[in-house]
Records
---
Amino acid sequence: MNNIHKLFKWGLWSVAVLCLSGVQVSCDSDDIDADAMYTFTGETVASFCQNDPELSDFYQLITKCGADALLEVYGHYTCFVPNNDAIAAYLSANNKSLDDIPAEEAQKIVYNCVIRGTAEYTSQEFVAGSLSSMTLSERHLILSFTTSADNRREIWVNGQARVERLDQEVHNGVIHVVDKVIQPSEMTLLEVMQNNENLTIWAMAYEASGLNEGMEKLYDESYVNTYGSDMYQYGDYKLHVPTSRRYGWTAFCEPDELLKQAGITGNTREEILVSLENYARTYYGSEDLGNYRSEKNPLHRFVAYHLLNRQMATNDMVFDTPAALINPTYADKLVEYYETMYTYRIMEIKAGNKINQQSNGDYVGIDEANSNIEALNGYIHTLKNILVYDDAVMRNDVLHKRIRFDAMSLPPQLTNNNIRWHNVDISDANGYTVTPDYCGEYFTFNDACSCLMWGSQGWAAFQGDEINMKDNYDFTLRLLPIPPGNWEFRIGYNAEGWRGMGQIYFDGIITGTPVDLKIGDVQGDARTGWVADESTADDGVENDKMMRNLGYMKAPESCWYAHDNIPLRDWYKALRYIVNQYSFQDYGAHKLRMRSVDFAGREFSIDYFEFIPVDMIRDEDRL
C-alpha cells in the first residue's frame, strides 16, 4: 500500500507551493530527461491542454464531453494526457476522425486518464504498482518502469502508454503527457487468462471451478446510500460517504511452465484438469472427484485458495506508508492476513510480498515483472512457486504465531472502495462513514449508532487509523477465521477520557464484565499497571507480567507513534486488552459483538486485534 504525499495548494491560485519530503521513491528524476520534467504554469488542466499545441486534440475531446467545466475548477487532478500523435493513432486504429467520436466515447477517453483525489501525483510519488486513487472511470492505473537504450528511466501507464513529459503543474493539478490513449482492459479475469499464453492451465481450472461466475459483477446494484449524499456532517465531523459498492478480486496464478514442472500435464482439457485434480488431492482431500464446482473438490479448493475478494496490486498488499507510522527497525517484519475464497482459510503476506513464509525461510514469491495484470474485475499476479494450503504446515508453522490484524482489513468493501489506507489526514474531510449494512457480513451496526472511519499520522493507532463507533452502538465484526487450536484473543486500543464501556460477545457468548476504554487514559492508572520500561530495573519484564495479571498489555514495539517519535509500546495510553482464551475445534468464522452499556453518547474505538497460540504466550516477543 502506498499513500501519496499530500501536496496541498492553499490560498490564491496564483501561488504554487511544492513541499517534497525525504521519502524513498521508485521514480528517480535524475534518470529522466530534464526537458521532460517540472514545469509550472498559471493555468488549469483545461486551459493548459487548450494552449499546448501537442494536446489540442485532447482538449477537443474534453469540450465534446463537457469535461472542460470539470477541469477548469479548483481541485486536485492528476492527468495522463495523450498527445496529438497518440489520439491520431487511436483514431486510425478505430477508423474514425476526431469529429466522428461521440460524446460518450470522448468522455471514456478523458475519464480513463484523469484522477481526482485529495492531492496530486507528481513523479515523486510514482512507485511500481497501482496509483491508490481511481480515475474518473473508477479504474486504477498501473505504473511500471523500464530502462531505455540510452539508459534513461522510462515510465509506463498500464504497460501501454509511455510518459513523455512529467509534472506539468497547473492550478488545479498536474499533467503528465503520454504517447498512447490509455485504454483499461475490458476483459474479465477469465478472459485475460484465456488470452495469456502463459496461463492456459489456470484459465481451464478457473473456468471449470465455476468460481469465475461469481466474480464478474462489478457493482452491487442493491446498495442504497441512505445518507442521500456523498458527504455527511456528524457534529463537527465532515465525512465522505461511498456512493457505490464496488467489487474487486485478486488472483494469484502459477504459469503453465511451473505447473508442468510439477507434473500437471495432458493432451486435452480434461486430461489437464484431472492431472491438476490429482496434484491437489495431496493437500485438499478426495471428495467429489470430477465435480470441479463442488466446494469440497480438491481442484476447486486449489483454485479458491488463490483468490481474494478484494482488488490489490502488488504495492497494495502490505501496509508500508505513511513511513512515519512504521518503526524503521522492524520494517521488514510488516505482515498482513487475508481470507481467501477457500472457505475459512487465510494467507499471510509479509513485506516483500512473501506469501506463507515458513520458519525455514521458504515462501511463495510473486513474479513482480509479470504481475499487476489488469482485468475489468481485478488483478492477476504471477507466482514463482506453487501455492497450496498444506494444513500441517499452515497450522503448525506459518500460522502458529501471534496474528495481528487491523480492523479495516476485515471487510473487503473497505479495500475495494478506497476507504482502507485512504483515510489518514485527508484534506477535504475528517474521514468516512458507511451505511450499517455496507460491509455485509463482515461488519454491521445498528441504526442508533454513528460510524466514523478516520486516521492521522499524529494518532496513536495501529496503521494510523481506527473505526469509532459513537452513540448507542451495537456492532458485530467477523474476525479472521484462524486455524483450530487454543488461542488467546486481544483488543488493541488507545485509551481516552471520551471513550465508553462496551459489553463483549464472542461467537454469541457474553464475555466477562464490560470493557472500559477510558481505563489507562491517566498515566499511572493502577488498573492497567503500566510503567515505562526505562523506569524499571529489568526493561519492563516484570511489569509486563504484572500487566498481564491485570488483563492488559503494552502496545507493540514494532508500531510507531509519530506524534512523539517513539515506539507505540512507550505510549502509556496505547494498550492491549486481553479478552479471553478459546479452544477452536475446527475452521470457522468467529464474530465479535460489542454493545454500549453506559448510554452516555461515548464511543468505542476499533483499531486492531490479536490472536496468539496459548503455548506461545510465555515466550512472546514485544513486536
Note: The chain has three domains: 29-178, 190-216+248-398, 403-616.
---
Amino acid sequence: MTLRAAGLPPHAEEQARELKPLTGIAAVIIDLDGTMLDTAPDFHVAINRMRADFEWAPLSLQTISSFVGKGSENLIRRVLSVDYADAKVELHFDAALAAYQRHYLSINGHYATLYPDVITGLQQMQEMGLRMACVTNKPVAFALPLMEATGLSRFFEVIYGGDSFSRKKPDPLPFLEVCRLFNLQPAQIVAIGDSSNDSEAGRAAGCKVLNVPYGYNHGQPIQNVDSDGIVPTLLCAANLISL
C-alpha cells in the first residue's frame, strides 16, 4: 500500500487557515473510505470482476466512485441500475451482491492507498488525548482487516461498520452510540468525513462536522454540503481542534 497525492483543490491550505478553531472537543469520529483511504480502486476491481461473472460490461473507476458511500447494498443496486430497471435490479441483486462480496474479500486493501497526512493527523489527535472512533458504512468484516492491514486500527478505541447497528449513516444512530460509549455530549465530538452521509449524521446527532475535499461524496461537490469547514488533510483537522 502506498501514499498518493490527494489532488487538493487550489488554495485549500489557505482556506483551512481561515477556519475558526473548534474548542471544547474531547473526541473525533472519522470515516474510512474517501477520508482516510482511497479504496475506489478496490471497489473498481471487485465490481468489474463481479460484472464479468455475469457477462456485463465493465464500468469506469469514475462511475463506480460516484456510487460509493452508502454501503454495499446501495453500491450493488447502483451498479445494477446501469443495466436494468428497478424490478430487474432486485431480480439480480442477491446473486450480484454475493459475487461482489466474494471478489471484494479476496482483494480487500490490495489497491487502496492512504491519503496524505492521515497517519500524522491521527498521531497528533492521539497525542492530544482525543478519544477516537471510526464509523464507516463498510461492513465490519471488510473494515476491520483493511484497517489492520493499513495500520489504522491502532488509533481507534472503537470501529463501527454499516452492519453494526440497525441503521447506518446518514442516520445519526452510529454517532449517538459513540457518544454513549464515550459518555460525551455530541457537542464535544467532531465528525470528519468526505460526504453528505457524514455531515447529515453529524448534524442530526449534534456533533461538529469537518469535511475533506478529496473523497467521493457520491460524485457531488463537497462545497455544497453543510459543515463547519473543509480541511485539506486530517493533520489540518487536528490543528483546528482544541480540548
Note: The radius of gyration is 18 Å.
---
Amino acid sequence: MNIYEIPQDASQDLREKVADLLMDQMASIGKDNAYELLMDSIDLALQEHSGAYIFVAESEGAILGAAFFNLGIALDQGGYYIWLNDLFVHKEHRNQGIAKKLLLKIIYWAENQNIKGIELETGVSNAATKALYNSLGFYDVISKRYGFRF
C-alpha cells in the first residue's frame, strides 16, 4: 500500500477514483447525487494555492482510503493548522490500519511543514474512530459546531 498526497497535476482517472470512493461516504449521509460536487471540490482542492490537500491510500491501482483537509490560520498559535474535513476508508478495507496510516502520514507532513496542530470532529457515538484519534494523541475539545449555508 502506498500513501501519498495527490499532486496538482493528478490525472482525471485518479480524480475520478477518489470521487468514486468518497461517493460511498456521501451516500452514507444521504447525499447520493453528489458526484459532480465531489469532482468540483477535488478540482478546486488541487488548484495552486487552494490551501486544500488530499492524501490517499492506494493499493494495486485502487484507492482504499482518502483524507481531505484544509489549512487555516490559528490566531492563538501564530501559524497554520489543519482542519481535517474527511477521513474515509472503503468499507471492505476497514479495520486494517489504513485510517491510522493516513493520519500518521498527515501528522508527519504537518510536522515537516511547521503546522501548529490538527483539528477534526467525529460523531459522538463513533467509539472506534474516537479510539483511533486518542491512540494518536488527539484529545477531546468540547465545542459545538455551527454551520451556515447559502
Note: The domain at 2-135 is CATH 3.40.630.30 (Aminopeptidase).
